[in-house]
């Protein structure tokens, strides 16, 4: 049995703490970089409440910003939100070694490029998380449901280190879908997230039923999905037109649901506007695809952010 | 000198109280139908603070809903907001006589048809008010600026009774612009109101500077104005393309400004969604004009209204 690789989680919120626990259970050395909850985690470790069994753990090292790492990790897993003003490349630079692989478990589209450009010699594995988990106290995470990761090498393919990491996640107890086209998978996830998430914020935190049952609501969602599809196709990722009605029918079958962006908004946390819709509109402009519905939603949300900043200044 | 006509103001808020005062000063008998502020007005009359001079008055009659009028007025001036669930025809029916003329001093587009249809024998005069006034206490109105009315007979022309009423307003001290095409004037006012008002609500009460200075904001306003223009043209009221840049440049010159719909929203009062944007989108659909930006704004605001109703239920 060869030694298990070392892992460093940067941004150990609910998602990062959970996947760190999975890799810890698989036998890896797992360290974390904490911001606000450093003291709690040094004192008590990370507690995970989950139906997957015992997952609570003491990280091998608990670091803070500004600390000097003992050694560079084999895999640096980045789980911070993608927000304007958050320089993710600067955030991970102190922890990167020559052979450190960057692993993203983050939402949105076109979020890899910035890091691939900043660290051209370090390969990138990109993951989409399908999980319901939330932090309930400093260092304490409730894992509510799911946990599957869709993962692949960026920009495409599945290299041996991506595969090795996938095996560790599976060993730790979660389901992995490897993909040769992780960017295409991101587009597919955007088909739902890009219409529903920002719209629910704009409608002051409306749930899925409110969105779909409003006069004109389902048609607006159709138009938004159609625009995302047109941009994806122009970007090289065509999708089946049937997905529009499948997405809507699937959403109608779920109980009324407030998505994570709506919850962020209602709890006055920053929202991942660029990752979820801004980058889609930027790619549309690059390919000269007309996206009037998406653009109206994006610009109006930007107005709101601007107003909020002005009022809190 | 012939006897001055009798006036009944239905919806004597800031606007109705002010224009009633003007006609009172011109020598008319002016009565009012009050809802919430009946007692205060019976006790103290209506107080108007204005640079136009003494305008406070005691109405000839102060009525409540359900009262029986002594006689039908020559002019019934309707100043209520145009809101879903407010049946304006039912509201004025008890006060209408065979020879009563309906006068609307109300915002929005396509707001006359409902009343013209309900009272086919009674002619309609339609007015757009350019005024800054607000109610500061029961029966007390601050008139801050302006007061000009643009008025004409509905659907077009200027008949003798519209002209007679205009003369009375002028005699009372305000500026009147008579128009042969009052519907065209409503479209012209919509060029500003339809883009800016609902967008400011959607952006949580953003002022004009926030709207125009946001990345993509001025372009979004341009698209919205262009769509309003396309609908107006399809409806028989073409306008000069130059008005787009004129509207934006004029807005930039004003101090940052929160429009009345934004203020209604921020003060948790109902907003005139259909009159200001819903009717524009309905007319677009009738003429098969594509209005994706307007539609996104409208449907998202409807989602918000639906959410609000559900939460207050």
Broad CATH class of the largest domain in chain A: Alpha Beta
Number of strands of chain A: 9
Largest interface: A-B, 31 and 31 residues
Number of helices of chain A: 12
Distance between the amino and carboxyl termini of chain A: 57 Å
Quaternary state reads homodimer
CATH topology of the largest domain in chain A: Rossmann fold
- Which parts of chain A are unreliable, with pLDDT below 50 for 5 consecutive residues or more? none
Quickly give the structural class of chain A: alpha/beta
- Outline the biggest β-sheet of chain A: 9 strands, mixed
**Rg of chain A, please?**
20 Å
What would you call the shape of chain A? globular
The level of helicity of chain A is 40-55%
Mean pLDDT of chain A equals 95
- Residue share in β-strands of chain A: 15-25%
Give me the CATH architecture of the largest domain in chain A, please: 3-Layer(aba) Sandwich
Count the domains of chain A: 2
| Element-level helix/strand string of chain A | EHEHEEEHEHEEHEHHHHHHH
What do we call the CATH homologous superfamily of the largest domain in chain A?
NAD(P)-binding Rossmann-like Domain
């Amino acid at each position: 049995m060869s030694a298990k690789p070392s892992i460093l989680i940067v941004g150990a919120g609910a998602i990062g703490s959970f996947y760190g626990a999975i890799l810890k259970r698989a036998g890896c050395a797992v360290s974390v970089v904490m911001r606000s909850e450093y003291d709690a985690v040094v004192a008590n470790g990370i507690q995970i409440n989950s139906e997957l069994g015992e997952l609570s753990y003491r990280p091998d090292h608990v670091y803070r910003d500004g600390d000097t790492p003992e050694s560079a990790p084999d895999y640096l897993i980045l789980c911070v939100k993608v927000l304007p003003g958050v320089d993710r490349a600067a955030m991970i630079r102190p922890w990167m070694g020559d052979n450190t692989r960057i692993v993203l478990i983050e939402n949105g589209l076109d979020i890899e490029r910035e890091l691939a450009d900043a660290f051209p010699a370090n390969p990138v594995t990109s993951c989409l998380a399908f999980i319901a988990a939330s932090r309930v106290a400093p260092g304490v995470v409730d894992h509510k449901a799911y946990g599957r990761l869709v993962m692949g090498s960026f920009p495409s393919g599945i290299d041996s280190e991506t595969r090795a990491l996938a095996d560790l996640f599976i060993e730790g107890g979660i389901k992995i879908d490897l993909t040769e086209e992780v960017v295409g998978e991101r587009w597919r996830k955007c088909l739902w997230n890009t219409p529903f998430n920002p719209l629910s914020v704009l409608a002051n935190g409306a749930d899925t039923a409110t969105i779909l049952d409003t006069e004109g609501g389902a048609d607006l969602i159709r138009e938004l999905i159609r625009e995302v599809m047109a941009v994806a196709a122009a970007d090289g990722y065509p999708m089946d037109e049937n997905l529009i009605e499948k997405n809507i029918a699937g959403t109608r079958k779920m109980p009324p649901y407030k998505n994570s962006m709506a919850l962020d908004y209602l709890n006055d946390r920053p929202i991942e506007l660029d990752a979820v819709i801004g980058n889609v509109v930027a790619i549309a402009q690059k390919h000269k695809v007309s996206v009037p519905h998406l653009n109206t939603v994006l610009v109006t949300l930007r107005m709101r952010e601007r107003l909020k900043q002005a009022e809190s200044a």
